[in-house]
Amino acid sequence: MQRFWQGSFLVSILICLAVRSYGQTVPEMPKQVRAEFWLTDPGRPVLFVKQSSISFTDVAKGSATIHVDASQTYQTIDGFGYTLTGGSAMLLNRMDAPARTALLNELFSTEGKGIGVSYLRVSIGASDLDERVFSYDDLPVGERDPTLTKFSLAPDQENLIPVLKQILAVNPTIKILGSPWSPPTWMKTNGGSKGGSLKLEYYEAYARYFVKYIQDMQKAGIRIDAITIQNEPLHPGNNPSLLMLPTEQALFIKKNLGPAFKTAGIKTKIIIYDHNADRPDYPITVLNDPDARKYIDGSAFHLYAGPISALSDVHKAYPDKNLYFTEQWIGAPGNLKGDLVWHVRELIIGAIRNWSRIVLEWNLAADPQQKPHTPGGCDQCLGALTINGNIVKRNPAYYNVAVVSKFVRPGSVRIESDLPKSLPNVAFKTPDGHTVLIVLNDSPLTQQFAIESQGKQARTNLPGGAVGTYVW
Q1: By its UniProt entry, which PANTHER family does this protein fall under (predicted)?
Q2: pLDDT tens profile 175-197
């Protein structure tokens, strides 16, 4: 009996040690963890303002709960931001130097009041939010330049390039995406800036045009991380614009652009489509071509038509290719309450939960009359900022991005969180080990709820239509 008791006692000790050892491999949340809470509530208004922190305590059931699980991970995040249109750059560049410096620090730094914008889109040549239409190789009617001897970034050297350099001084690691609205008109079937298609005979020259753009921007100290082939290739009614069908895009990539990048040693990512979510068949058609696919990093989307879930359709078809959300406008004069709810629900939460690595709002800045724009370009595009000399007004898109950009830094990873009724949300683990949760109260009434993480809960509430940014 004594031997049996001694053996049982020894086994019990070994079991206890094993349990303790196993427990040490799954660290629990420290007892005194508190979450920062930043509130954006247009109803008050309280616009991205830090509130009293909330405490995580032992789980106590009884309210709607968002469960956050850092063990289940999804895509890596590249950043959040805007399109720095030529018009935006012009307005920034015309500010007095001290006012411009202060504003750029607010936009691109995370220190103090900085919102930490970490990704920018720029136009390759003019977009419709430039003062005029231009390319980097404009010629008199009837002339051609297939060797691109007259290529020059001069149109961007007055405003865009100087402003980008100042932004890079604030955030040297910001990623920049370039998108063309149109090739030079002499390359097009209609010889004009609006509509038309790229002539087959100039596919090779246009590929070199991209190469020269990336190389000359690099010489100016600006690294282009990625390009899209064409902004809104199925919308030839803008000025400037181009019609490019998916079979044409695939042909251009596999025969010209991909090989040209390879020969020149260019590592800039090639991203396709860059248009609405109602046509996921477009990027899938391009990716179905194996000779084009090998050069393609991923696909880009806007949401002027179609559901945000279409991004997941492309992910399911080609899970090894990345997804990007590159544009969404807000029409003047804007409606902060409605715009915040829609954009946070569909883009900041929706696009990221459907595999996008970025979310970009449309133009960073416009003047009080929504200028500048090209003849026929968008005359109702409300900037994230309205700039009138040195006077700056912050509009809905500023806050749509701020709620996530300050804390969800590049390199963050989306993690699992469930979706209680009327509380759409998205969660991240940041490179420095923090957890960030963005929650929208998508109902008209105040909601109380709990956030559960690592066996602890923090109780909080959000007014109807408000957004909470929680960091712990």
Answers
A1: GLUCOSYLCERAMIDASE (PTHR11069), LYSOSOMAL ACID GLUCOSYLCERAMIDASE (PTHR11069:SF23)
A2: 999 999 999 999 999 999 999 99
Which residue in 106, 248, 327, 361 is the catalytic one? 327
- CB-CB contact of 276 with 305 (8 Å): yes
With 0-12 / 13-18 / 19 or more C-beta atoms within 10 angstroms meaning exposed / middle / buried, residue 201 is exposed
**Contacting residues for 74 by C-beta, under 8 A, at least 6 apart:** 355, 413, 414, 415, 416
* Residues paired with 51 in a beta bridge: 37
The DSSP code for 233 is T
CATH numbers and ranges of domains, the chain: 34-74+416-471 (2.60.40.1180), 78-410 (3.20.20.80)
Average pLDDT, whole number, for the chain? 94
Q: Reply yes or no on whether 327 is catalytic.
A: yes
Over 50: is that where the pLDDT of 104 sits?
Answer: yes
Q: Give 378's contacts (C-beta < 8 A, 6+ positions apart).
A: 128, 129, 238, 329, 370
Single out the catalytic residue among 28, 36, 111, 232: 232
- Does 29 have pLDDT greater than 80? no
DSSP readout, 190-203?
Answer: SSSSSS--B-GGGH
Say if CB 325 and CB 303 are below 8 A apart.
Answer: yes
* pTM of the predicted protein model: 0.93
Active-site residue 201, yes or no? no
Query: CA 386, CA 36: separation in Å to the nearest integer?
Result: 30
Helices vs. strands in the chain: H and E counts, helices first: 14, 20
Whether omega for the bond prior to residue 333 falls within 30 degrees of 0, making it cis, is yes
Encode pLDDT of 220-248 as tens digits.
999 999 999 999 999 999 999 999 999 99
* pLDDT tens digits, one per residue of 333-378: 999 999 999 999 999 999 999 999 999 999 999 999 999 999 999 9
| DSSP state at residue 240 | S
C-alpha distances (whole Å) from 6 to each of 3, 17, 18, 19 are 5, 17, 18, 20
